[in-house]
Each structure stands twice: as structure tokens, then as C-alpha cells.
């Protein structure tokens, strides 16, 4: 069951990476209620997030969410200690003490341009984040951390982006057509210089072609090589060979034959 869930999570994060540009380390925006639930389980929060998204993560909390944890008093001190280990995300409205849902909604915005993964147990916030394309959601089901499937808004935005990659926009096609027309008009107006430019281009091309051919001739493979000259015995001159032969024959004649004594 766990392997099947991990495979599904990898597939979901691959969709966000290919269509919306998500990259590791993933920025996980945690609200105060989710932080309390994590602190109650007394587990390694970073390891659990990484097991869900199948990659490196960077947990973050806003100033409003941290302030809410402080306001709860000493009973939720473990959640405060856990929140201190997360990176603090400036929201610039902590003095107003906005609700966690309002704070995170304001940071994510309408397009989630900073590519946050929102970790929350609030059904209201999750319903609101589903309307923002390209926003992964993590929630706690009892003691199991779950990565939610992409919403309908996310799938529609993904299909639209894939369609844009296949077909060029109509405005771009019109601009290309106008550029081609302007280019043709310019060539007709400067017709007197066109012939000279063509001749110069042809001569330059011929010079370049000759240079390339010369380089190709130099790079031609050589034929089979001869034997290593260091391993071949040197040939002796004919006169020296004849003199050595005569010398050896004279030495043989000068040496008397050794006769064996009769038994």
C-alpha cells in the first residue's frame, strides 16, 4: 500500500514539475493547525514531508501562523518549538493578526507564482486553494500525511499550457507575416545592391568551400603503415657483404684440420 501511494505521489509531483515549474527543494507552507498536529505526533517533520513529495523540502511558516501559536499559550509549546525550526515567511501583515486562511491565501495569490505546497487541515482553506491552478495540497488523515490529487483547475491549466506549446499564438503568426512582407519590400527597393551582394556572397562561399575541402584532404586517413624501423634488421651494402664473405672463407682455409690419433 505504501509503495503504491509513493508511486502515485511521484506521478503527481512530476505533473507539477513539468507543467508548473516546481523544483527541489519544494517550499512547503505550513499553517498553525497542521503544525500542532505534527508536534503531537513527535516525528521528524522534514522526513515526513520528504516521504510524501518524494524529494527535498523546505518547510516554511508565515508570521501570522507563528503568532497564532504564541497566542495559544504554554499548552502548545511543542508546536512553537517545531515552528522555530521552519523557515519564516514574511507576510507583512502580522500586526493585524489575520487568520491563517487569509494569510496563506494572500501569499499564494491567484497563480501561486512562488510555487508553494500548502500543508493544512482546514477544509475551508483547501477548498480555496483548489481554485488556484498549480497548488499542491497536503493534509493529515488521522496520523497519515496525504498528498491531494490535482484539482480540476490545475488539470485545465495544464491542458491549456500543453496546447500553447503545440500551437503558436495568432498574434505571433501575424507578426511573422508582417516581418516577411517588410523584408520582401526592402529587397525590392534595394535591388541595385542585391546583385553585388549575391556575387560577394557566392565568392565568399567558394572560398569557404575550398578551405573546407583542403581541411578534409588533410584529415584523410592514411594507408597501411610499414613495419617498425627499429625492429627491422638493417640491410648491409653489397661491397661490405662480399668482403665479410671473403674474410670468413680465408679464415676457414687458414685453420688446419684436427686429425684424430689412431686407436
Keyphrases for this structure?
263 residues; alpha/beta; Rossmann fold; six-stranded mixed beta sheet; ribosome biogenesis; PIN-like_dom_sf; rRNA processing; U three protein 23; Fcf1/UTP23
Tell me the total number of β-strands.
6
Number of helices: 11
Strand content: 5-15%
Given as residue ranges, the uncertain stretches (5+ residues, pLDDT < 50) are: none
Radius of gyration: 42 Å
The major beta sheet can be summarized as:
6 strands, mixed
The residue fraction in helices comes out at: 55-70%
- Based on the structure given, which CATH architecture of the domain at 2-161 is correct? 3-Layer(aba) Sandwich
**By helix and strand content, what is the structural category?**
alpha/beta
What's the overall average pLDDT, rounded? 80
- How would the global form be characterised? elongated
What is the CATH C-level name of the domain at 2-161? Alpha Beta
Straight-line distance between termini = 109 Å
Q: What is the N-to-C succession of helices and strands?
A: HEHHEHHEHEHEEHHHH
**CATH fold description of the domain at 2-161:** Rossmann fold
Order of strands in the sheet with most strands: 3-2-1-4-5-6
CATH superfamily placement of the domain at 2-161: 5'-nuclease
Subcellular location: Nucleus, Nucleolus
Keywords: Nucleus, Ribosome biogenesis, rRNA processing
Pfam families: Fcf1 (PF04900), UTP23_sensor (PF24779)
Region (Disordered): 178-263
Amino acid at each position: 500500500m505504501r509503495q503504491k501511494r509513493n508511486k502515485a505521489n511521484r506521478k503527481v509531483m512530476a505533473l507539477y514539475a513539468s507543467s508548473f515549474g516546481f523544483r527541489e527543494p519544494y517550499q512547503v507552507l505550513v499553517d498553525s493547525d497542521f503544525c500542532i498536529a505534527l508536534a503531537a505526533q513527535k516525528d521528524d517533520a522534514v522526513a515526513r514531508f520528504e516521504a510524501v513529495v518524494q524529494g527535498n523540502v523546505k518547510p516554511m511558516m508565515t508570521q501570522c501562523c507563528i503568532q497564532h501559536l504564541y497566542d495559544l499559550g504554554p499548552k502548545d509549546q511543542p508546536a512553537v518549538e517545531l515552528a522555530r525550526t521552519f523557515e519564516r515567511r514574511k507576510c507583512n501583515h502580522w500586526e493585524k493578526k489575520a487568520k491563517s486562511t487569509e494569510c496563506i491565501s494572500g501569499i499564494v495569490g491567484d497563480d501561486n507564482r512562488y510555487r508553494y505546497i500548502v500543508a493544512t487541515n482546514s477544509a475551508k482553506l483547501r477548498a480555496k486553494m483548489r481554485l488556484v491552478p498549480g497548488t499542491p495540497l497536503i493534509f493529515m488523515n488521522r496520523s497519515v500525511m496525504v498528498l491531494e490529487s490535482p484539482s480540476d483547475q490545475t488539470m485545465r491549466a495544464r491542458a491549456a499550457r500543453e496546447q500553447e506549446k503545440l500551437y503558436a499564438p495568432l498574434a505571433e503568426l501575424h507578426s511573422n507575416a508582417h516581418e516577411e512582407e517588410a523584408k520582401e519590400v526592402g529587397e525590392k527597393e534595394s535591388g541595385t545592391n542585391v546583385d553585388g551582394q549575391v556575387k560577394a556572397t557566392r565568392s565568399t562561399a567558394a572560398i569557404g568551400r575550398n578551405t573546407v575541402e583542403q581541411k578534409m584532404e588533410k584529415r584523410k586517413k592514411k594507408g597501411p603503415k610499414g613495419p617498425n624501423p627499429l625492429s627491422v634488421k638493417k640491410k648491409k651494402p653489397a661491397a661490405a657483404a662480399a668482403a665479410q664473405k671473403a674474410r670468413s672463407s680465408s679464415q676457414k682455409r687458414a685453420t688446419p684440420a684436427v686429425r684424430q690419433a689412431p686407436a
